[in-house]
Amino acid sequence: MTDTVRPILVVGDANVDLVLGGDVVPRFGQAEQLLDRADLVLGGSASIVACGTAHLGAPTSLIARVGRDAFGEVTLDALRSRSVDVADVIVDDAAATGLSVILSAPEDRAILTSLGAIPALVGADVLERLEAWDGPPGVLHAASYFLQPALAADLPDVFARGHSLGWTTSLDTNWDPAERWRGVADVLPHLDVLLPNGSELRALAAAIGAVGGGDEDLARAVARRGPRVVVKDGARGGWSIGDGGGVVRAPGLTVDVVDTTGAGDSFDAGYLAAIAHGVDDEARRLRWAATCGSLSTTRAGGTAAQASLADLTAAIAS
Fold first, then answer.
1. Are 156 and 186 in contact (CB under 8 A)?
2. Which of 8, 41, 115, 217 is the most exposed place for a label (fewest CB within 10 A)?
3. What b-and-e string marks burial along 59-92, b requiring 16 or more CB atoms within 10 Å of the CB?
4. 3 in a domain, yes or no?
5. Residue 213 — pLDDT band, cuts 50, 70, 90?
6. Residue 53 placed within a domain
7. What does 106-175 look like in DSSP terms, one character per residue?
8. CB 63 within 8 A of CB 142
9. Is 184 inside a domain boundary?
10. Helix, strand, coil % over all residues of the chain, rounded to 5
11. CA torsion sign, 132 to 133 to 137 to 141?
12. What is the pLDDT of residues 120-147, one digit of tens each?
């Protein structure tokens, strides 16, 4: 770690999540089901990552769009409460704030999303901020690629410009609801870090024509296009492969899982915060990521159990 912490600029989705737990598998026919819990919490992959990196001591700003409505106020207040700079969150008069309903079981979940203002974000919103940035360059991370087609189309130019200005670039595409996985091949040459889970890795590899072999072979094929591929592996932790082809691994923690919502985003936050804090060792970066992902599952919602630096240090030490 270094004394100077690089800033993190996160780009993507900001919304609220209604997390439902208990008897969450719907039964139609007007059957009423009683839940164990219902929590209205901050949602959006980008927002959860931003909260995670800020809580880990990295100065973090978010570029996103919300509506001028009650859910938008909830979203902004939640981000501010986690020390995320929201000066660049655009309040949209023409669209509602996005909403996801999450049906959460201990080992899996289903997500129903109304996008609202989320797809209105465009590359120009990010480029304008990069050009106006008056501090040192840091980490530029984008999330929810397939929920924001206008931004996705602009990302090669955005990341290329970020690189030219000295930023480290990172992407978590998340799942493609249409399962077409288009456009990512154009982004890969401009990426330093790609953060898929196993299912996303396999889909992304297929989209660039990589077939056959196991996950490590697929990750190597993707890494040859540019980025280090950092794979979220659930309770097992995570692993990564760079262009050199060697595999680095880190285990997760054994915890009592309450809700897996946002665990992958907290994994991302741990990895990106490690970069921002000057952690050069890849195994240590992965340990930060895997530990943060594990700890985040111990409470409901994506941000309630995110690790602080003190939490992270204590968990790794134990």
1. yes
2. 217
3. bbbbbbbbbebebbebbbebbeebebbbebbeeb
4. no
5. confident
6. yes
7. TTEEEEEEE-TTGGG--HHHHHHHHHH--S---EEEEE-GGG-HHHHHHHHHHHHHHHHTT-EEEEE---
8. no
9. yes
10. 40, 25, 35
11. negative
12. 999 999 999 999 999 999 999 999 999 9
84/254 Cα distance (integer angstroms): 29
Residue 206 lies in a domain: yes
Integer Rg of the chain from CA: 18
Cβ neighbours of residue 202 under 8 Å, at least 6 residues apart? 215, 218
Q: What distance in Å separates the CA atoms of residue 86 and residue 104, rounded to the nearest whole number?
A: 28
Q: Which residues of 225-253 are buried (b: 16+ CB within 10 A; e: fewer)?
A: bbbbbbbbbbbebbbbbbeeeeebbbbbb
Quote the domain boundaries for residue 95. 8-317
* DSSP string computed for 188-235: GGG-SEE--BHHHHHHHHHHTT--SS-HHHHHHHHHTTSSEEEEE-GG
Query: Which residues does residue 66 pair with via DSSP β-bridges, in sequence order?
Result: 91
Exposure string of 93-107, with b = 16+ CB inside 10 Å and e = fewer, is eebbbbbbbbbbeee
Give the span between the Cα atoms of 185 and 189, in whole angstroms.
Answer: 8
The residue count of the chain comes to 318
Q: How many CB atoms lie within 10 A of CB 28?
A: 5
160-205 per-position pLDDT tens digit: 999 999 999 999 999 999 999 999 999 999 999 999 999 999 999 9
Cβ–Cβ contacts within 10 Å for residue 310, how many?
Answer: 9
CATH number of the domain residue 170 falls in = 3.40.1190.20
Q: Is the pLDDT of residue 241 over 80?
A: yes
DSSP 3: S
Cα 52–chain centre separation = 9
- The number of distinct structural domains making up the chain is 1
Q: Do 190 and 226 form a contact (C-beta atoms < 8 A)?
A: yes
- The residue type found at 86 is V
User: Which amino acid appears at position 222 of this protein?
Assistant: V
Query: Which residue type occupies 77?
Result: D
